[in-house]
């Protein structure tokens, strides 16, 4: 079984450079990094006293919260579609 090609993309998040290796396209990695950067800056603007570690953790918490809400919504919609087919 062959492994998918991996790409290395350098991105800037909250003033720090990161080299991200993965199978996603460079444009996808840059979009993800941009969204993380935007969220960190949003949290920092509302809480300027927070250090970078707390900003990063709050960004992760916010992102996982959004993910779980969307996952729930998708599951609800999938149930609706299944019920409509039955």
From TrEMBL:
Subcellular location: Cytoplasm
Predominant location category: cytoplasm
Entry annotated with the keyword Cell division: yes
PANTHER family cross-referenced by the UniProt entry: CELL DIVISION PROTEIN ZAPA
The protein's role, per its UniProt record: Activator of cell division through the inhibition of FtsZ GTPase activity, therefore promoting FtsZ assembly into bundles of protofilaments necessary for the formation of the division Z ring. It is recruited early at mid-cell but it is not essential for cell division.
Pfam family, one: ZapA
Regions that span the bilayer: none
Species classification: Bacteria, Bacillati, Bacillota, Bacilli, Bacillales
Keywords, in A-Z order: Cell cycle, Cell division, Coiled coil, Cytoplasm, Septation
Family assignment from sequence similarity: Belongs to the ZapA family. Type 2 subfamily.
UniProt protein name: Cell division protein ZapA
Oligomer status and interactors: Homodimer. Interacts with FtsZ.
Database matches in NCBIfam families: PRK14126.1
Stored InterPro entries: Bac_CellDiv_Activator, Cell_div_ZapA-like, Cell_div_ZapA-like_sf, Cell_div_ZapA_firmicutes
GO biological process: cell division
